[in-house]
């Protein structure tokens, strides 16, 4: 008994000096992926040193940090559609607005280390929507043609496959193929289309989250270039240019465009045209002789009378 009593103070002293466990916070799943409009569980587990009733807070990071759970209540858009069990939060019917990074904070005022936290990232997956397809209605043989397909809303981004007349178009197996398929951005490109490429084309978008979606098919017709029509059009244009040129030359040669001394006016009449020289008209623009009055002239009879009297 004396030996036991001798060691008892030492044991008590060691127990007091041993390090205690501070508040610790963890999560069994730091990255959560759920489909849109389903429930998301954000796990948060904690252990405290002394404080048996720590303060639990959830915050969402973004441009500004906003409260999700504070002072025992859910805040903002989470009010009425979330629940908490311990420190684990369940969000109901999540949307893209709920995606982001969340932080679980445990404050133990009685512990030596008073604060602990862990982060959980929520990614909301969106199944494919019906993609928009750009398919030309027609083209000429030998030209380059692109068909485009795009779904802006699917998460993760969709991949695309093309169909012709209901049959899937397989990616080309050799480099000198006449077409290319980019499944990531949804482009089907023909380097040089031929009449055999005529058909009804459609595009299928898929991302593994929900059922794939296909756009409505559209027919593309490939036609040969009408060489005869092109040659005929060129000939007509050349003839028009030649006629206009010859007509202008003849008019210029006949003096139609030349400047004559003085001015002439052509007045159309029923039986032709009479040419009136402007030089016979009063020049109304010469205003220097407007007030000029010619001197009176003696009549011929008066001169004859004078000579007779002499």
From TrEMBL:
- Which InterPro entries does this chain map to? Ig-like_dom, Ig-like_dom_sf, Ig-like_fold, Ig_sub, Ig_sub2, JAM2
Enumerate the Pfam families for this protein.
Ig_3
The secretion signal range is 1-22
**Keyword field contains Signal:** yes
Q: Where are the transmembrane segments?
A: 229-251
Q: Which GO terms describe its cellular component?
A: cell surface; plasma membrane; protein complex involved in cell adhesion; tight junction
Keywords for this protein: Membrane, Signal, Transmembrane, Transmembrane helix
Q: Give the PROSITE patterns listed for this entry.
A: IG_LIKE
- This protein's name: Junctional adhesion molecule 2a
